[in-house]
Automatic annotation (TrEMBL):
One of its GO terms (molecular function) is hydrolase activity. The keyword Hydrolase applies. InterPro entries: AB_hydrolase_1 (IPR000073), AB_hydrolase_fold (IPR029058), Epox_hydrolase-like (IPR000639). The lineage of its organism: Bacteria, Bacillati, Bacillota, Bacilli, Bacillales. Residues 42-274 form the AB hydrolase-1 domain. Keywords: Hydrolase. It comes from Peribacillus deserti. This is Alpha/beta hydrolase.
C-alpha cells in the first residue's frame, strides 16, 4: 500500500516533533513544536483560561498538514511552571512568548489565540508587531477590567489559594465544559480527564492566586485601534463566556480585521468544529 503525501508529512512531523520546556523569565515554559518539511509558515497556538495545549489536540493534526505548529502552555496552566516569582499578566506572557520565539529562532508567526490566549496575542501585536504576520482570534477575551481592589486585597491573605481550589472544585470540570461547549454530546471522558489533569497539581492554585493580583486587564480600545496586524476573528454563535458582541466590538476597534460567526457552536471552537475553524484559518493565512 502506497502512503499518501499527507500521510508521509504527518509521519515526518511526528518523528521530529518536540515537546519540552525552556526556562524563561524565571519560569519553566512548556511547548510543543511540530515542524513541516516544506512550509516556512508557523502557527503559534495560545490557549484560554483554565486550559492548555490539550484544547488544540483536534486542531493541531489538521493544521500540521500544511504548516509548522508551535503550541505553548501559558503559566501557570498545563505543563508550564507555577513559579512564585513569575508575573502572571498579559504583558509578561507577551514578553515570555517573544523570548521563546527568539530562542527558537522563529522570526514571524501566525498568532492564534483562544479566549485569554487571544488577548495575549493582541499584546504581542502591540509590543512586537514585527513578529505577527497575521492574527487569528478564537472567541478572544476583550475589554475585561482588572480585578476589584477588594479581591486583590483578599488574594494576599494566607491560604487564599485554598479558597480558589475549593471554588473551582465546587464548579467542577464537567460543569465548566457544559458551559463552554454548545453540543454537550461532544463531552466525553477523554475531554473531562484532559481538562482535569492540570488541576491535580496543587501549585496551580497558588499561581491563580498571583494571577488575580497581577492581571492588568485587557487592552483598551485606543490600544486596539493602533494594531495594524491583519486579524481574523472567529466566534461561536452560542458563546456564553465571551459573547459574539465582544467579537463585534473587537472587529470595530481592530482596523484590519474580519469577523466570522459560526452557527451551532459555543466557546470552545477548536474542540467543537476544528475542521471548520481550520478551513477559515487556511483561507485567511494563504490569502493576500
Amino acid at each position: 500500500m502506497f502512503l499518501r503525501e499527507v500521510d508521509c508529512v504527518l509521519i515526518i512531523q511526528k518523528e521530529k516533533s518536540v515537546k519540552e520546556k525552556k526556562f524563561i523569565l524565571g519560569n519553566e515554559i512548556y511547548y510543543e513544536y511540530y515542524p513541516h518539511p516544506q512550509s516556512t509558515t508557523t502557527i503559534l497556538l495560545l490557549h484560554g483560561f483554565l486550559s492548555s495545549t490539550f484544547s488544540f489536540r483536534k486542531l493541531i493534526p489538521i493544521a500540521a498538514r500544511d504548516y509548522n505548529i508551535l503550541s505553548v502552555d501559558l503559566p501557570p496552566f498545563g505543563n508550564s511552571g507555577k513559579s512564585s516569582s513569575y508575573i502572571y499578566s498579559h504583558k509578561n506572557h507577551s514578553k515570555m512568548i517573544i523570548e521563546l520565539l527568539k530562542s527558537l529562532e522563529i522570526n514571524q508567526v501566525i498568532l492564534t489565540g483562544h479566549s485569554m490566549g487571544g488577548q495575549t496575542c493582541l499584546n504581542i501585536m502591540k509590543d512586537a508587531p514585527e513578529l505577527a504576520a497575521k492574527g487569528v482570534l478564537l472567541c478572544s477575551s476583550g475589554y475585561l477590567k482588572r480585578s476589584k481592589a477588594s479581591l486583590i486585597f483578599s488574594s494576599r491573605l494566607p491560604f487564599f489559594h485554598v479558597f480558589v481550589k475549593r471554588l473551582l472544585a465546587k464548579t467542577g470540570v464537567e460543569r465548566n465544559l457544559q458551559n463552554v461547549v454548545f453540543n454537550h454530546a461532544l463531552i466525553d471522558q477523554e475531554m473531562v480527564d484532559g481538562y482535569m489533569q492540570p488541576f491535580l497539581n496543587n501549585e496551580i492554585f497558588k499561581g491563580l492566586t498571583k494571577m488575580i493580583r497581577e492581571w492588568e486587564g485587557d487592552l483598551l480600545s485606543e490600544d486596539l485601534k493602533q494594531i495594524e496586524t491583519p486579524c481574523l476573528l472567529l466566534w461561536g454563535e452560542h458563546d456564553k463566556v465571551v459573547p459574539p458582541e465582544i467579537g463585534r466590538r473587537l472587529h470595530e476597534d481592530l482596523p484590519n480585521s474580519t469577523l466570522r460567526i459560526f452557527e451551532g457552536i459555543g466557546h470552545l471552537l477548536p474542540e467543537e468544529e476544528p475542521e471548520k475553524v481550520y478551513t477559515s484559518m487556511k483561507e485567511f493565512i494563504d490569502g493576500a
